[in-house]
Target: Binding-protein-dependent transport system inner membrane protein
Amino acid sequence: MKNPVNTSVISPAARRRPSRRLPIAGMIGIAIVVFWLVMALIGPYIAAYGVGGVIGDDVFAPMSMHHPLGTDYLGRDMLSRILHGAPYTIGVALAAVSLASLGGTALALCTAATGGWFDAVVSRVVDTMLSIPHQLLALIIVASFGSSVPLLILTAGIGYMPGAYRIGRALAVNVQAMDYVQAARVRGERLFYITCFEMLPNMFRPVLADFGLRFLFIVLLLSGLSFLGLGIQPPQADWGLLVRENIIGLSEGAPAVIVPAIAIATLTIAVNMVIDSMVGRKRRGNEV
Model:
């Protein structure tokens, strides 16, 4: 007669096995991020009014059925303005962080794999750029050459590329010392293969977390520039400019100021929640 299986006994490995599911905070963050990404894509097409359309003389009107978020200082529908501003706030930040993260990581892989004088020269140039505050660099460039979407993307991308390079190089130096990278060198693999197929996949998660953090920094940088009048120019608007335009009516038209600020806050907090969840899962997996 076979002994019955004792289902109450669970192996220590099974107890320590990490869950594949994201925590609730991470799932909520992903839902909010996806919502704003969708709004950035379709927002201008579903807005009830044009980006600069003045719909009446009732400035700072309260929330109503016709204007769910009220109107601004010129009588424009705030919901439509926020939907039109989503592509600029999110799209420009995504383009800039892609330039910063991809450029910095690619350069870090090349310098770590090549080494020698090339690594030393690039590292010293990056150290020099890191000594310049991002906000100051952005203010100088925009004030000197004017404000436009391509210039804002280039300014934010170049400003945050040194930080992405530093993170990428620290990861690449550790990864290239691994046995599988050394084995690829012994096999005679080319530099492109080693960096793209041996090193980069093992750096992907930390680089992705850094990508999210830099996206937050760039959103806040661009919103700050718009608040100072150096970002997206009227009649187009991002959320930072919406706050600046309506700050004079805070006492009588609070939704026109608070709602764009809440939009910025929900986007940045949601991205931060996703990053924390990803890092937490990786840490729990390493502890096992």
In short: Residues 5-16, 284-288 have pLDDT under 50 and may be disordered. The chain has one domain: 25-36+73-280. The CA atoms of residues 8 and 15 lie 12 Å apart.
